Amino acid sequence: MRSPPLLLLTTALQSYPSINTDPHKANSITRADRSSVTFQGAFSTAQKTNNLTASTQVYAVFLSGLQKFLVPAYITNGNADYKIDRIPAVDAGQVYAILSTSPTSVDVRNSITGPTILQVYPMGKAPAIPVPPCL
After folding, report:
1. Which residues neighbour 126 within 8 Å (Cβ) at sequence distance 6 or greater?
2. Does the residue 32 lie in any domain?
3. Has residue 99 been placed in a domain?
4. What average pLDDT does this structure show over 33-61?
5. How far apart are alpha carbons 8 and 34 in whole angstroms?
6. 111-121/30-31 β-pairing
7. What is the distance between the alpha carbons of residues 3 and 19, in angstroms, rounded to a whole number?
8. How far apart are CA 2 and CA 21, in angstroms?
9. Which contacts qualify for 125-129: CB closer than 8 Å, 24 or more apart?
10. Of 22, 46, 124, 129, which residue is 20 to 30 A from 56 by alpha carbon distance?
11. Is the pLDDT of residue 17 over 90?
């Protein structure tokens, strides 16, 4: 079996600006189909690194197991952050999130930041507060 060309491998490993999310604060619980998420500084970073404008539609893409959920994001906090009002009904556990400009696919041509990892709990199954801070 032949190895894939190195060019494909390096393209797949392209790095993107990191993103921070507000649920990573201490005493915060992220619940599927309920919690909002703010991607802190993501719009201001995307403007600088990807030349995006406020009119460019961006999607928060949640990758959970073999499933992919795309949620339209909007600009908030004085044009600094992207935000979604509700995490989709993803499977509980660790969920990866990235920001993308495509409503249908995720690849190196349309990903703008991420990934970040969220620990998501199903409704009614979240641990008691306080939750230890994310490290």
Report:
1. 29, 31
2. yes
3. yes
4. 86
5. 38
6. parallel
7. 32
8. 40
9. 125/92, 126/29, 126/31, 127/29, 129/27, 129/29
10. 22
11. no
d(C-alpha 39, C-alpha 47), whole Å: 14
For 103-130, the pLDDT digits (tens) are 888 887 888 887 888 888 776 666 655 5
Residue with token string 């998501």? 120
Question: Does residue 128 fall inside a structural domain?
Answer: no
Q: Which domain, by its residues, includes 39? A: 15-121
Residue 92 has pLDDT above 60, yes or no: yes
Total domains in the fold of the chain: 1
Tokens encoding 6: 């190195």
pLDDT digits (tens, 9 = 90+) for 72-87: 999 998 888 999 998 8
With respect to residue 1, please indicate whether it lies within any of the assigned structural domains. no
Residue 104: C-alpha distances to residues 20, 29, 68, 112, 114 (Å): 24, 28, 10, 15, 17
State if pTM tops 0.90. Answer: no
Question: How far is 127 from 23, CA to CA, in rounded Å?
Answer: 14
22 phi/psi in degrees, rounded to 5: -65, -25
